[in-house]
Amino acid sequence: xxxxxxxxxxxxxxxxxxxxxxxxxxxxxxxxxxxxxxxxxxxxxxxxxxxxxxxxxxxxxxxxxxxxxxxxxxxxxxxxxxxxxxxxxxxxxxxxxxxxxxxxxxxxxxxxxxxxxxxxxxxxxxxxxxxxxxxxxxxxxxxxxxxxxxxxxxxxxxxxxxxxxxxxxxxxxxxxxxxxxxxxxxxxxxxxxxxxxxxxxxxxxxxxx
Length: 209
Prior knowledge:
Blueprint: H1 12-18, H2 32-44, H3 46-56, H4 76-80, H5 96-116, E1 123-132, H6 139-147, E2 154-165, E3 168-178, H7 184-192, E4 198-208
Antiparallel strand pairs: 1-3, 1-4, 2-3
Domain Translation elongation factor EF1B beta/delta subunit guanine nucleotide exchange: 123-209
Family: Belongs to the EF-1-beta/EF-1-delta family.
GO molecular function: guanyl-nucleotide exchange factor activity; translation elongation factor activity
C-alpha cells in the first residue's frame, strides 16, 4: 500500500501501523513523499497537528508539568477497539495507579519549585538629578535630607556634584529600587518636599538590573 497520497490512508491508526517499522514513507531518508503525507495530515487534522507539535516542545518538562483533567468522553480509536488505552475516559473510570503517579509527579514538581526558592525581586538602577534653588543653598544639608528618605526597597548609592553655571551645583545621585515596592515618581515627590533646598528633580537614567 502506498502512502504518497494521503487520501488512501484510512486514519491515524493506519498511518501509525504503516510506520511501525519505518522512519520514512519511502526509502531510508526524508523525501517529498514524507512532505506530501505531512502536509496532507496537517490539512486533514489541523488542530491535532497544532496541538501535537506544541506539546512536543514541552518534552523535557513532561515530568514536572502540573496536574490537569483529561476531557471526558471516549476517543474514536477506543470506541473501535476496546483493547486500546482510553485517554478520554470518564471520571468514574480513572485508574487509581495513574492517579497515584500523577500525585507523585505533582509532589515532585512542587518540591523542585520550592527548592529553587522565590525568584529575586525585579530591580532598577536610577540616576536622579536634584537641583538646588541657588548658589547659597546648603548642599550638604540637601544631600543629608535626600539620603534620609527611607522606603522599603530603596538603596541609595554614590553621588557627585555637577556644576550647572553661575556657581550653582546640582546633586546627581544613583539609587536602586525594587520595582514592586518603590515608585520613582513617589520618591521624587518625597525629595521635592524639602522646599528649603530642592527646586526640582529629574530622572536622568533608569535601567533594569
